[in-house]
Design goal:
Helix 1 packs across helix 2, helix 3 crosses helix 4 and helix 5 packs parallel to helix 6. The protein is of the alpha/beta class. Strand 1, helix 6 and strand 2 form a beta-alpha-beta unit. The chain has ten helices and nine strands. Strands 5-2-1-6-7-9-8 form a seven-stranded mixed beta sheet. Strands 3-4 form a two-stranded antiparallel sheet. Helices cover 42% and strands 14% of the residues.
């Protein structure tokens, strides 16, 4: 079996299991990763497929190899400015307890923590009945970074800097790395979730009013994106908000979603009867 055939078999397996299409920018890196794995298995593609079916550790290594996995605090800052200036203040007027917020591709947790920090700004943690921020990802090993609670300067970018003060107010540092305060982490519930296969409904005691599906749909083919959006809209509360990556806004649509614009931010609201 030649390298092209091996890569095609692996690509089809990934697509079937996760809905992810290996991005062109990562094809060569994925081929190198596959070659290194097969060298230890006497170049048996069948054996490698069986291993990643049985071993979560090997499966997660593969997912990390094929995805870019770049994330940082308050990524796509314009969305957080919209939450901070309009959406959350309006919700604070209506609700004494914080809304359920879902970070649907949480990776190492920076997005979920960013959402938690904004929730904490508007609702005192003593009012939490349940953990309001739900963080999910197919790679539970990446999300374990939230439990490890050690973040490096690599989690900061120029994009998002207007909200870095929230991190400084709710963290401790050793001069380089830093850790979040317990009350921020206690507001986040982490769950392993395959966006393609799994049912979203059991995740939520109350329907989320805000859903972030950023940095995930870019890896999906159109029919898979539509499936994920359809399942997300089903659990989203009426008049709740959906945010996707800016690069996916133009390709996202659903009969129950209305596209809104505020400045440079494009986002969706689920129109309901309430």
């Amino acid at each position: 079996m030649n390298e092209a055939d091996e890569f095609n078999i692996l690509s089809q397996f990934i697509l079937n299991e996760t809905g992810i299409v290996v991005p062109e920018s990562n094809i060569n890196a994925t081929k190198r990763f596959l070659k290194s794995k097969l060298e230890n298995l006497e170049n048996s593609m069948d054996r490698y497929i069986q291993i990643i079916k049985k071993s979560e550790t090997e499966f997660y290594q593969l997912i990390n190899a094929i995805t870019i996995n770049e994330t940082y605090f308050f990524r796509e800052e314009k969305y957080f400015k919209l939450l901070d200036s309009i959406i959350l203040p309006e919700m604070r007027e209506r609700y004494s307890t914080p809304p359920t917020v879902w970070s649907g591709a949480a990776s190492t947790g920076e997005e979920a923590i960013s959402l938690s920090l904004l929730i904490n700004k508007f609702w005192n943690s003593s009012n939490y009945i349940n953990r309001p921020v739900i963080a999910t990802d197919i790679d539970i090993n990446s999300m374990n970074q939230i439990n490890k609670n050690i973040y490096t300067p690599n989690s900061f970018r120029e994009d998002g800097k207007d909200f870095h003060y929230l991190l400084h107010n709710c963290s401790t540092t050793d001069g380089k790395n830093f850790s979040l305060n317990k009350k921020i982490l206690d507001s986040i519930h982490t769950v392993k979730l395959n966006l393609i296969i799994d049912d979203y409904k059991p995740l939520f005691k109350t329907k989320p009013k805000i859903i972030f599906l950023c940095n995930v749909l870019i890896y999906m083919e159109p029919e898979i994106r539509e499936l994920i959006i359809d399942k997300a809209v089903e659990v989203l509360d009426d008049n709740g908000y959906l945010f996707v990556s800016s690069s996916n806004t133009a390709t996202t649509s659903h009969p129950k979603l209305e596209l809104l614009q505020n400045g440079k931010s494009f986002y969706f609201i689920k129109r309901g009867n309430s």
